[in-house]
Amino acid sequence: SSAINNYISKVKKLGEQVLEMMAEGLGIDNTRVFSRLIKDERSDSYFRVNHYPPCPELELEISGRNLVGFGEHTDPQIISVLRSNNTSGLQISLSDGTWVSVPPDHNSFFINVGDSLQRQLKWEIVSLGLR
Fold first, then answer.
1. Where is the Fe2OG dioxygenase domain (predicted)?
2. How sure is the predictor about 16, in pLDDT bands with cuts at 50, 70 and 90?
3. Domain check: are 39 and 73 in the same one?
């Protein structure tokens, strides 16, 4: 639909701006070095909508029940632009292995560096573990 295409276009533009600001902050002369990768029409960027219903039985996970959700992972792409819609559940792993909840905020986006950007920057910025 046109509403979804419009939303994707705006989120993609946000991603481009974030990548250009990151390049500038890293002192890279060509600030479009990363954003051009997602501006390209052949870019493999994608849009996904996930819905995870509340899981009050989360404490029962140890009992062997299968719960819906993503397990611990890193994102493979350049960056991920996530919107929580005021829904909690996302956690990031700090360098010491501690898991910290990302506070939900319906007015904000969560930008996560992906594995691809981490490799391009030779680990100057790291891809965080997520769950």
1. 42-131
2. very high
3. no
Q: What is the pLDDT of residues 90-100, one digit of tens each?
A: 889 998 999 99
Residue 57 within any structural domain of the chain? no
Neighbours of 43 (CB within 10 A): 13
DSSP state of 130: B
CB 117 within 8 A of CB 64: no
Which bin fits 111, alpha (ψ -120 to 50), beta or left (φ > 0)?
Answer: beta
The model carries a pTM of: 0.79
- Separation of alpha carbons 35 and 22, rounded Å: 10
Q: How far apart are CA 55 and CA 57, in angstroms?
A: 5
Task: Work out the average pLDDT over 80-102.
Answer: 88
Q: How many helices (H) and strands (E) does the chain have?
A: 3, 4
The parent domain of residue 28 ranges over 1-47
Domain total in the chain = 2
